[in-house]
Here is the input.
Amino acid sequence: MFEIDRTVLLLIDVQGRLAEMMHDRDELFKSLQNLLKAVKILDIPVIWMEQIPEKLGRTTPEIAEIIEGTKGQAPIAKETFSALLNPEFAERFEALGRDQVLLTGIESHICVYQTGRDIIQRGCEVQIVTDCVSSRTRANKELGIQRILDAGGLATSCEMILFELMKMARGEAFREIVKIIK
Here is the structure.
């Protein structure tokens, strides 16, 4: 069971023209926006990465505008496929001291998978948010999800993890989040 004070959300490489080429792009963006708005309400930190932003572009504006102001810092530029191989990411991740990780972003069969696999190997619990990840093809999206499951992670969805984190249907955060996802 994921707990708010143990959870961190990783947003991987939702940027530039590549983000526009994702399978089910509209569903991906809507789910990511909902999840990011909700974790902001829950005060869950977000670590976001950008793969070679000088070549691939910056985080998609409709995603970046939500992240700005969440608990966390600016995006981390990386060249590695696994974010854990990037020293700045590893330092920021360690500093949070959180051991429950929500994986989101693109592409699920490359950077999302390799990051998730490496974090699982470090002993963290990982849930891949299946409606918040994608690849250019459906087959690669599904393969990335399956490989996370094979490595010991779990699958979840935006709504499923939010209700798991909130635990009960009461309070201001619950009311605000229900408005977002309904």
The longest strand covers residues 125-134. The radius of gyration is 15 Å.
